[in-house]
Amino acid sequence: MKDLKAKGRAAAGVLASVTMIASMSAAPALAAQPADGAAGADDAREVAGENAAATKMVKARAEGTFSYDQDTVTPNATIRTLFQKAVRAICGAGIPVASENPLGWQITVSGAVDDAYTTSVGELADDTAVQQKMTCTCGGNPAGGRAIVTADVKGVPVEAMLARAGVQPGANAVTFVSADGAETMLPLGYVIGRHGVLSYEINEEDLSASVGGNNQLWMTRTPANYFARDVVEIVVSVEDEAPAAPGETDEHPNSPNAGVLAGAQE
Question: What average pLDDT does the segment 90-118 reach?
Fold first, then answer.
């Protein structure tokens, strides 16, 4: 009987030892697996860290304001260099005719009009003169190129000159005849729509101080080679087909500023 009890106690001791060893062996494995709550906390901390980093990046971005204006005019000395000395080669202008009195220059409006007339620029200016900032640029001037100027232009609106003559129905073209015989034909609607002005002053000085000559046609969003100078006659006509608008037949229809002279602005 004593032997059985001793064997029983020995067996129990062995079983207890085995159970303890098994428990100790399993402990590290259980410790390596975090509870669900701990995993969620880690995920939350990771997301919070990413959000904090993103917030820091946003705060690090540069801030400021962008603005521009088109009120700055180009000095006449610069205009004279760009559009008087070089204008014959760049913009195809004729030789300027000097005059001591641009306001005394005679202009004739004729063609498909009810009342053709001839008068002085000064007389036209007394009734309809306007003054506004406009831009003149060569058709091939690249973005950032130097063949472009902005000036305070004073002159007579072409629309007012034609209204005085009374344009006949069906008229669709207007030709500007220069003193040297050069002719520039443009769509009538284009000239009116581009606020065509026969200028006689640039930056409050006669044209001779800037572009040269006595008067010059200025239009918005139009290459300078269409800016006829020393105009002596404006002829309105009815054409079977209206002339092409400036730029439509150019190799680079996005002119001015087509960029064809990039790198050649020395």
Answer: 79
